[in-house]
Structures are given as C-alpha cells and as structure tokens.
Design a protein that fits this description.
With 404 residues, the chain is mainly alpha-helical. The chain has helices at residues 2-11, 19-30, 32-55, 58-85, 89-103, 109-114, 120-141, 148-169, 175-196, 208-239, 246-253, 262-276, 283-301, 306-319, 333-349, 355-365, 367-370, 374-403; strands spanning 144-146, 200-202. It is globular.
C-alpha cells in the first residue's frame, strides 16, 4: 500500500500544475465510469423529477428520494470496499468525493419533501437521520479521525438544508425572515469553522502524498458543501419569490473577519450593522453576532482593541431590541451608563486608550438620557462606579503581574 502511494506520488498529479489536468487524471484517464455514473444519476433524476411533477405524483417523488439514498449508500460501500480491503485508495477517494457531492442534496430532494405538507417534516427528519448515518459511515470507511466540529458543522449545515424549506412552506411565517435567518445560519457555520478549526486525520499511517490527498480531499468536500448550501439559498429565493435586500448581503460581509488585518474587522462590523438596518428586525441579532465575533477575533489575533467594538456592537443590539422600523428607540440610561462604565474600565484595566473615545461618543450621543435625575438614580450610578473602579483596579494589577 505504501509502495502504491509512492508510485502515485511519482507519476500521479503531484507534478500536475493546473486544475484541468488534475480533473483529467481523476475522472477520464483512470475512472471515467465513476464520473459518467454521477452525470447519469443527475440527468436521470432531473428528467424523472420533472416528469413526476407534471403527473403530480408525490409518491413517485419519495421513491426517487429513496433511489438517491440507495445510490449514496452504494458509493460509501464501494469506497469502504476499495479502501479498507482492496487497498485501492485512488478510486476509493473518488467515490468518497462523489458521496460528498451528493450528501448536501444536489438533487434538491429536501425542497420536494417540504411540499408534502404535514408529512414533510417527518420525511425531513428521516433525511437528516440518513445524512448523519452517511457522514459517520464515511468516517468509518476511510478510517478517519476527526474532531467533533468536523462532524457536527457539516451535519448542522445539512440540517439547515432540510429544515429551512419546511419553514418557508408554512403560510403563516414571514418568508423573508426565514431566508435571512438561513443566510445568517450558513455564514455563521462558516465562521465557526474558522475559529473552531475542524481537524481531519487518519488512523492509519500515511506518507507525504497520502497526507496531501487527505488535505486536498477535505478542502474539496468543505468547498462543495459550502457551494451547495449557497445554491440552496438561491433556489429558495427563486422558489418562494423572496426579493433581495441589502440586509441579505450583510451576513456575507461577516466573512471579512476571516481576513488578516484589524481594518477588515472594523469595516465589516460597521457595514453589517448599517446594512441590517434595511431589515429593522435583524439589527439586534446582527449587532450581537458582530460583537461576539469581535471578541473571538480579538482573542485569536491578540488585538484587544476589538473588544471595544464588541461592547459598542452589543450595546447597539440591546438598544434596538424590538425595533421594527420608524423612529429609533429612546436611549436608555442604564444601558448607556453600563456601556460607558465598561469601556472606561477596559481603558484603565486593560490599557486600552481607544476605549475612551468610544465611551465619550456614547456619552455625547445619549447625553440627555444619560444624566441621572433624583437621588435614587445618582446614588445607584455612583455605587456602580465604585464597584467598577474596584474591579478595574484588580484587573490592572493582575494584568501587570501577568506581564512580569
């Protein structure tokens, strides 16, 4: 097996310098029948599905769904046979990538299941159970050793593909809300993958070429799954006549947090909150999500200034809670006061001078609401300042001790 891998490394696509040659090597030179099988499956499913739609025969559509599941099981079984008992790793990997292609419903069975009314949710549950089983079977077939995030993130994305069409089919639910939530859900999973760093390894010894194939195959699978999720979003928009708004672009701007450089994070956060204002109900969750990723990126990249953005974003999120359009909510004394105190504490305890302008901005913006009235408010505010000063002092000395 090791000798075969070395031979593959010497004469295989390791020396190929372009993507077209790699496709030719995998799908034409060595295994044209696998690629032809997938094309026939997709073409046949398209023709049969259209014909059954014209006949309005839902039972036939469910039968086709079962056919696809059977085809996927054969793909996994074939990959396991070739990889685990025959030592034929190259064709096994091709079958595995074909299964990764079909795993995220490339034939759009979940949309059909959603049209079955009350029974659709039951069939969607069955499809999700099969997806979890197939994903586990893929791990077993290729003797993979993966982190929990590498298993659950694609599974959660597949569940979204199954459940969001069910919600969109319900007449009493705002479809624009559901579609926007589906976008945030998908982009959120991508961001989680960035920060959780899913790991995919193998329980058997691989040489350099084998590790390279594993890495490339994993990247190809992640890319296909992300692409299919995006394609489903486009299909839902067309199927349910959901108009495009600037708020639907906002979640994708979150991907700028993946880029290196602090400027991208600041630009992305401001743009997301501004664009979300075109869909008022989503300003609160958008701002809070931005705040969470400011914290994550600030911790990962060791850029503590981003914690200031987290405080401001979460403050905006809480401030706009329940806002559905029209005039903005009145500024809240306790919310603004808490944000200012936290920012000043960060400026002192964490040595973040950038927190002071943010605190002053909030103070000026809410000057009228910020001024306490009466002894009760003034007394409460002064006591909060006392507690905060104490905690900030402790934090500062602890920080100095850590630096030493």
């Amino acid at each position: 097996m090791m000798e075969e891998n070395r031979k593959d490394h010497q004469s295989g696509p390791g020396r190929t310098k372009n993507f077209e040659a790699l496709l030719h090597y995998w799908f034409i030179q060595y295994n044209p029948l696998y690629f032809f099988s997938a094309l026939c499956m997709l073409g046949g499913m398209f023709l049969l599905s259209r014909g059954l739609t014209e006949m309005d025969w839902h039972g036939g559509q469910l039968f086709l769904t079962g056919v696809v599941q059977t085809y996927e099981i054969i793909l996994i079984a074939g990959a396991a046979l070739l990889f685990r008992t025959q030592g034929q790793r190259r064709p096994a990997v091709i079958l595995g990538l074909m299964e990764a292609f079909f795993l995220f419903d490339g034939t759009f069975r979940t949309e059909m299941i959603a049209s079955l009314g009350s029974h659709g949710l039951v069939w969607a549950g069955a499809w999700m159970a099969m997806t979890a089983l197939k994903l586990w079977a893929m791990v077993w077939a290729f003797r993979l050793k993966i982190s929990a995030s590498a298993f659950f993130l694609p599974l959660l994305a597949a569940f979204g593909i199954a459940l969001f069409p069910q919600a969109l089919e319900r007449a009493n639910i705002d479809k624009s809300w559901v579609h926007l939530l589906a976008i945030w859900y998908g982009v959120g999973l991508v961001m989680c993958a960035k920060f959780l760093k899913p790991r995919v390894g193998c329980t058997i010894m691989l040489d350099a070429w084998g590790r390279k194939v594993l890495r490339r195959s994993s990247m190809a699978a992640w890319g296909m799954w992300a692409g299919f999720y995006l394609f489903h979003l486009l299909i839902w928009s067309a199927m349910f006549h959901i108009p495009f708004t600037a708020a639907q672009a906002a979640p994708f701007i979150l991907l700028l947090f993946l880029l290196k450089g602090e400027i991208w994070a600041w630009s992305a956060g401001a743009a997301i909150i501004a664009l979300s204002a075109t869909f008022p109900g989503f300003v609160t969750p958008a701002a809070i999500i931005v705040g969470i990723f400011y914290v994550l990126k600030g911790g990962q990249d060791k850029r503590r200034r981003l914690y200031v953005g987290a405080v401001v974003s979460i403050t905006i999120g809480v401030w706009t809670l329940g806002w559905t359009g029209g005039a903005l909510p009145e500024l809240n004394l306790w919310l603004n006061g808490t944000a200012i105190v936290v920012l000043l504490a960060m400026a002192w305890g964490l040595r973040l001078p950038s927190a002071i302008p943010a605190a002053l901005f909030i103070m000026v913006a809410g000057a009228e609401a910020f001024m306490p009235t009466g002894r009760l408010q003034w007394g409460s505010f002064v006591m909060v300042m006392g507690f905060t000063s104490l905690l900030a002092g402790i934090a500062k000395h602890e920080n100095m001790k850590t630096r030493k």
